[in-house]
Predict the structure.
Amino acid sequence: MSAASARRRKQLAARSAGEGGHGAVLKKLEQALEAPNMDETTAYEALQLAQSIIRKRIKQGDFDAACVLCSDTSLRLLQSNRVSVASQLLSLLVEALRETHMVDSQEWIDRIVALQAAHDSAMDATFSGDAASSIEALRLARLQRDWLRDVTHWSSDFGKIHYGANVFHELFAQQSHRLAMMLTGSSSTSSNNATNDNDDDDANERVEAWCDAVQHMALAEQPDKIVAWLATLPAPTDVESALGHLCAPALRDSLLTRTVLLLAAIENLRDANQLVRGYINQVEEPSGRTMAALVKSYTSKDDGKAPTHVVFCCMLLRVLEKDASAGPLYSWLLRSFKKELEKLPKPQVGLGFTTKIGQKFFNMQPPPNMLSMVENMMGMMGGGGGGGGINPAMMQAAFAQMQGGMM
């Protein structure tokens, strides 16, 4: 045997024994992951080793092995409570799933559910008491929220369900709700002016997190869980319910209306009716606000009260049960509730929903230049829930165009 043949034989044997040429690196990765009481340095070493193998496997076309290794390594890092390091590998995982056009099979649904459960356990073990709302805990919670949004978007693009698998929407909703609760208890130790600015930012982010939570729980087809969440929020104050109020409506009213509009826009009247019934029975009536009194207040012009959101939602659902000839009644209902709709968080999102409802149920076509924007907004529901990713300037222009129309 020639020297060249012997050398070639050694190379082939090494490659075969090395599982695609990664044998030595895989061995180092396994040693790092098996380290007792894994510290941050060891975790980062495991991260770098895993990233190297994953990228090489993708380049070689070994897509399944690359994604499985990324998932398994992320899970083991989370089980060692290395949340910060694992979050970086989780980002690589969703990038790999999209890049390789991996389908959201039941296996991958189970894997992602297990990863989220491990993340929750690791966060609970790492942050407790006052630390649960610390800057680092908030940062990691935001990263996980963003990751679940990306997962939902991937499922929407490569799965069988239009807006993504229901379970991913539910996970995203739960993470958004968790973030909203953390922002409620967060605090800052900076100067007074900076503290006020931070409080305003936290309040805005909290409202956005609540919007994501209820909208994606609606897409998960879980209206009863939305009712349970809304029941924890305070009732409208006298200022919030006064006629012609300048402030935003009460948060629970805003979330109810926004969610009902979303469910109607995607033609899920079953869950919309279940949500409104549950809200009346478990939220309004136990607090002494009976439907008879609310309906009387809605039609009264002398009680000094703004139109109530739950009555508007009931009327909307009854109108949507009629045929297309009820279009003028729908337009009247929107005009009568216009001032409240304009004060919802990100009113351009509500405008998109009402426009889609008019188009779906009453064949009310928006202007051509607005139609594409509404379709794009609804298309983003799988990833951003309509709350993020919308071009504010474009939607604001559409909102101005519609001032004299449907609304």
Observations:
- The mean pLDDT is 85.
